[in-house]
Amino acid sequence: MSSPEPAPPPTSRSPEIVALAGGVGAGKFLRGLDRVARADGLRITVVVNTGDDLRIHGLRVCPDLDSVCYWLAGLMDRDRGWGRADETFHAIEAMRDAGVDAWFALGDRDLGTHLRRTELLRGGATLSEATDMIATAFGVVPRVLPMTDDEVTTRIDVLDPEADGGARDLHFQEYWVRRRAADPVKQVRYTGAARAVAQPAAIEALERAEAIVVCPSNPVASIAPILAVPGYRKALAARREVVVGISPIVAGAPLAGMADRLMPVAGLEVSALGAAQAYEGLLGSWILDERDRGLAGRIEHELGLRTAATDTIMVDDARAGALARIALSLAREQG
């Protein structure tokens, strides 16, 4: 699928929209938001989860940062939901043939991104600087920022009868990719978050944004790591009247990923209501799918949010754009 039609770049005087993002749902939504921004002359800043990042085969891999850039650049594999379109896996297959335990599948085109990032970081660039150079090379117009330049890692404590003490500490990617989310989860932790420094440009953007959107991402795996970094909760709470969230849960199930495995561990029911509760005190508005319209009254009464029920299944960029317009309209009504 091609990228949106070129448009004059927004200026520093253009209204700014900030999105908090991670995962497939965020990528689809950002395609629509970018489409709206190009039509309306808006600037977009995307603050991206880096809790999923890992070092593997000598490379720094940033799954959510790459996913956001690939979706915005029109390079994504829409069917798979991750990685680049027209991808091949010759390098990883050769590694496996050589006896390497290459459980994390890096495509050949994707490998180029990780090689470039690792080169930049080893040369002294910050993760923010490396991300900006990569996004610019891909022709991405929105500003893409990692939530922090410091290392934060999402860790999953799982029940494992074969481990000492009956528990095992896993990197998020080990839990999700290597072990296919098969282990019962005891706890989710964001190691390093309390010591991390929020991306200064992200905090500044949140403070002046016309609208702030929490993308339809996994609230535990994609957005909670961002909120665990000091500064983000305070920034959102101060602007909550212009913060709108979009439910990643439709009819009691996630559209993608493992939110249904992790939300109960965080004390959240797997529903549009439970997803909204993950951001209690941080939102002004909440969008849920029309199939969950019956929950709107409870969300309004229990959480004090404005709500809108609509079709949130983003089958294409046009549908994602329509959803983005609803989100911006809600935020502006509150602001």
Overall geometry comes to: globular
Structural class determined from secondary elements: alpha/beta
Main-sheet strand order equals 5-2-1-9-10-13-14
Give the end-to-end Cα distance, rounded to a whole number of Å.
35 Å
Tell me how many strands there are. 14
> How would you sum up the major sheet?
7 strands, parallel
Overall pLDDT level: 94
Poorly predicted runs:
1-5
Beta-strand content estimate? 15-25%
Number of helices: 13
Secondary structure: helix percent:
25-40%
Detailed description of the structure:
The protein has 335 residues and is an alpha/beta fold. It is 39% helix and 19% strand. The chain has 13 helices and 14 strands. A seven-stranded parallel beta sheet has the order 5-2-1-9-10-13-14, with helices on both faces. A three-stranded antiparallel beta sheet has the order 7-6-8. α1 runs parallel beside α2 (63-73) and α1 (23-40) crosses α13 (317-334). The chain is globular, with a radius of gyration of 19 Å.
Question: Which tags fit this structure?
Answer:
335 residues; alpha/beta; 7-stranded parallel beta sheet; 13 helices
Question: How is the topology of this model organized?
Answer:
Elements: E1 16-21, H1 23-40, E2 43-48, E3 54-56, E4 59-61, H2 63-73, H3 90-97, H4 108-122, H5 127-137, E5 143-146, E6 153-159, E7 167-171, H6 172-178, E8 185-191, H7 200-208, E9 211-214, H8 219-227, H9 232-238, E10 243-246, E11 249-250, E12 253-254, H10 259-262, H11 272-277, E13 285-289, H12 296-303, E14 306-310, H13 317-334
Parallel strand pairs: 1-2, 1-9, 2-5, 9-10, 10-13, 13-14
Antiparallel strand pairs: 3-4, 6-7, 6-8, 11-12
Helix pairs in contact: 1-2, 1-13, 4-5
